[in-house]
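To the wet lab folks,

You asked to see what we're planning to order before we commit. Fair enough. Below is the target structure as C-alpha coordinates, and below that is the sequence we designed to fit it. If anything looks off to you, flag it before the synthesis order goes out.
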Protein backbone atom coordinates (compact mmCIF):
# COMPACT_ATOMS: atom_id res chain seq x y z
CA UNK A 1 0.00 0.00 0.00
CA UNK A 2 1.39 3.39 -1.02
CA UNK A 3 1.22 6.37 1.35
CA UNK A 4 -1.04 9.19 0.26
CA UNK A 5 1.01 12.23 -0.72
CA UNK A 6 0.03 15.52 0.81
CA UNK A 7 -0.52 18.49 -1.50
CA UNK A 8 2.39 20.83 -2.12
CA UNK A 9 2.35 23.39 0.72
CA UNK A 10 3.96 26.10 -1.43
CA UNK A 11 1.63 28.96 -2.27
CA UNK A 12 2.08 31.92 -4.61
CA UNK A 13 1.42 35.21 -2.83
CA UNK A 14 1.19 38.89 -3.76
CA UNK A 15 2.21 41.67 -1.37
CA UNK A 16 2.05 45.42 -1.96
CA UNK A 17 4.63 47.87 -0.65
CA UNK A 18 4.08 51.57 0.00
CA UNK A 19 5.97 54.42 1.64
CA UNK A 20 5.40 58.16 2.00
CA UNK A 21 7.70 59.13 4.87
CA UNK A 22 11.47 59.58 4.91
CA UNK A 23 13.52 58.15 2.06
CA UNK A 24 10.60 56.43 0.34
CA UNK A 25 12.73 54.52 -2.17
CA UNK A 26 15.09 53.26 0.54
CA UNK A 27 12.08 52.18 2.62
CA UNK A 28 10.74 50.14 -0.32
CA UNK A 29 14.20 48.66 -0.81
CA UNK A 30 14.23 47.52 2.84
CA UNK A 31 10.83 45.90 2.32
CA UNK A 32 11.86 44.20 -0.93
CA UNK A 33 15.07 42.87 0.60
CA UNK A 34 13.20 41.42 3.57
CA UNK A 35 10.52 39.88 1.32
CA UNK A 36 13.19 38.29 -0.87
CA UNK A 37 14.54 36.54 2.22
CA UNK A 38 11.02 35.40 3.12
CA UNK A 39 9.77 34.29 -0.33
CA UNK A 40 11.24 32.13 -3.06
CA UNK A 41 11.03 33.03 -6.76
CA UNK A 42 10.28 36.64 -5.78
CA UNK A 43 9.66 39.23 -8.47
CA UNK A 44 9.05 42.93 -7.85
CA UNK A 45 7.21 45.43 -10.03
CA UNK A 46 8.53 48.81 -11.03
CA UNK A 47 8.14 51.72 -8.61
CA UNK A 48 5.17 54.04 -8.99
CA UNK A 49 4.45 57.44 -7.46
CA UNK A 50 0.83 57.85 -6.40
CA UNK A 51 -1.41 60.36 -4.69
CA UNK A 52 -2.72 59.38 -1.26
CA UNK A 53 -6.27 58.04 -1.04
CA UNK A 54 -8.85 58.54 1.71
CA UNK A 55 -6.67 60.97 3.74
CA UNK A 56 -5.21 63.32 1.14
CA UNK A 57 -3.36 65.80 3.38
CA UNK A 58 -0.07 63.86 3.40
CA UNK A 59 2.93 63.31 1.11
CA UNK A 60 2.60 61.22 -2.05
CA UNK A 61 3.48 57.53 -1.93
CA UNK A 62 5.94 55.32 -3.71
CA UNK A 63 4.33 51.93 -4.38
CA UNK A 64 5.43 48.56 -5.74
CA UNK A 65 4.25 44.95 -5.58
CA UNK A 66 6.06 41.69 -4.95
CA UNK A 67 5.00 38.20 -6.01
CA UNK A 68 6.68 35.08 -4.66
CA UNK A 69 6.18 31.64 -3.19
CA UNK A 70 5.86 30.78 0.50
CA UNK A 71 5.18 27.79 2.71
CA UNK A 72 3.87 30.02 5.51
CA UNK A 73 0.17 29.99 6.36
CA UNK A 74 -1.62 33.35 5.83
CA UNK A 75 -1.66 34.53 9.47
CA UNK A 76 2.04 33.73 9.93
CA UNK A 77 2.89 35.54 6.69
CA UNK A 78 0.89 38.55 7.91
CA UNK A 79 2.86 38.52 11.19
CA UNK A 80 6.15 38.50 9.25
CA UNK A 81 5.08 41.41 7.02
CA UNK A 82 4.10 43.41 10.11
CA UNK A 83 7.50 42.70 11.68
CA UNK A 84 9.16 43.99 8.48
CA UNK A 85 7.10 47.19 8.78
CA UNK A 86 8.24 47.65 12.40
CA UNK A 87 11.87 47.00 11.37
CA UNK A 88 11.49 49.83 8.84
CA UNK A 89 10.28 52.20 11.56
CA UNK A 90 6.52 51.97 11.16
CA UNK A 91 4.55 52.74 14.28
CA UNK A 92 0.85 51.89 14.15
CA UNK A 93 -0.78 54.74 15.96
CA UNK A 94 -3.61 57.03 15.07
CA UNK A 95 -6.10 56.47 12.27
CA UNK A 96 -5.96 54.36 9.15
CA UNK A 97 -4.63 55.63 5.83
CA UNK A 98 -2.16 58.04 7.40
CA UNK A 99 1.51 58.56 6.54
CA UNK A 100 3.90 55.64 7.04
CA UNK A 101 7.51 54.67 6.48
CA UNK A 102 6.55 51.26 5.09
CA UNK A 103 3.21 49.57 4.50
CA UNK A 104 3.04 45.93 3.40
CA UNK A 105 -0.36 44.47 2.52
CA UNK A 106 -1.00 40.80 1.82
CA UNK A 107 -3.09 41.01 -1.37
CA UNK A 108 -3.44 37.45 -2.63
CA UNK A 109 -2.68 34.01 -1.23
CA UNK A 110 -2.95 31.54 -4.11
CA UNK A 111 -6.60 31.17 -5.03
CA UNK A 112 -7.72 31.27 -1.40
CA UNK A 113 -10.41 33.43 0.13
CA UNK A 114 -9.76 34.10 3.81
CA UNK A 115 -12.06 36.07 6.13
CA UNK A 116 -11.13 36.40 9.78
CA UNK A 117 -11.38 39.38 12.14
CA UNK A 118 -7.68 40.17 11.56
CA UNK A 119 -7.17 39.14 7.92
CA UNK A 120 -9.14 39.30 4.68
CA UNK A 121 -7.75 37.80 1.45
CA UNK A 122 -7.99 38.93 -1.27
CA UNK A 123 -7.31 42.33 0.23
CA UNK A 124 -10.78 43.90 0.66
CA UNK A 125 -10.03 47.00 -1.45
CA UNK A 126 -7.70 45.37 -3.99
CA UNK A 127 -9.97 45.77 -7.02
CA UNK A 128 -10.56 49.49 -6.39
CA UNK A 129 -6.94 50.59 -5.92
CA UNK A 130 -5.01 51.60 -9.03
CA UNK A 131 -1.88 52.16 -6.90
CA UNK A 132 -1.85 48.40 -6.23
CA UNK A 133 -3.37 46.98 -9.41
CA UNK A 134 -1.11 48.82 -11.88
CA UNK A 135 2.18 47.62 -10.30
CA UNK A 136 0.78 44.13 -9.69
CA UNK A 137 -0.37 43.84 -13.32
CA UNK A 138 3.29 44.27 -14.40
CA UNK A 139 4.30 41.02 -12.72
CA UNK A 140 1.07 39.03 -12.31
CA UNK A 141 -1.46 40.38 -14.80
CA UNK A 142 -3.10 37.04 -15.60
CA UNK A 143 -3.61 36.06 -11.96
CA UNK A 144 -7.37 35.63 -11.34
CA UNK A 145 -8.71 37.59 -8.37
CA UNK A 146 -10.58 35.05 -6.20
CA UNK A 147 -14.24 35.93 -5.69
CA UNK A 148 -14.40 38.04 -8.87
CA UNK A 149 -14.59 37.34 -12.59
CA UNK A 150 -11.44 39.42 -13.29
CA UNK A 151 -7.75 38.90 -13.61
CA UNK A 152 -5.43 41.51 -12.08
CA UNK A 153 -4.97 42.98 -15.58
CA UNK A 154 -8.74 43.26 -16.12
CA UNK A 155 -9.29 44.82 -12.69
CA UNK A 156 -6.49 47.33 -13.42
CA UNK A 157 -8.11 48.27 -16.73
CA UNK A 158 -11.44 48.84 -14.95
CA UNK A 159 -10.00 51.34 -12.44
CA UNK A 160 -7.59 53.06 -14.85
CA UNK A 161 -4.22 54.58 -14.07
CA UNK A 162 -5.14 58.13 -13.04
CA UNK A 163 -2.76 59.40 -10.38
CA UNK A 164 -0.33 56.47 -10.86
CA UNK A 165 3.00 57.33 -12.50
CA UNK A 166 5.78 54.80 -13.10
CA UNK A 167 9.20 56.12 -12.14
CA UNK A 168 12.00 55.68 -14.64
CA UNK A 169 14.63 54.18 -12.40
CA UNK A 170 16.21 50.84 -11.78
CA UNK A 171 13.72 48.24 -10.59
CA UNK A 172 14.27 46.14 -7.50
CA UNK A 173 14.61 43.07 -9.75
CA UNK A 174 17.73 44.67 -11.26
CA UNK A 175 19.25 45.79 -7.96
CA UNK A 176 21.77 43.85 -5.98
CA UNK A 177 20.19 42.80 -2.71
CA UNK A 178 22.61 43.58 0.11
CA UNK A 179 22.55 41.53 3.32
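Sequence we intend to order:
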Amino acid sequence: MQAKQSPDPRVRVAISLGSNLGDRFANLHVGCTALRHLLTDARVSGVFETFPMYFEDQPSFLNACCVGVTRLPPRELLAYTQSIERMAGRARRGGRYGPRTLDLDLLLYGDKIVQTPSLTIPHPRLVERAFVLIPLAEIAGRWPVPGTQWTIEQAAARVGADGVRRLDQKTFNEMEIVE
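Structural context that might help your review: The longest strand covers residues 61-70. Residues 1-6 have pLDDT under 50 and may be disordered.

Thanks,
Computational group
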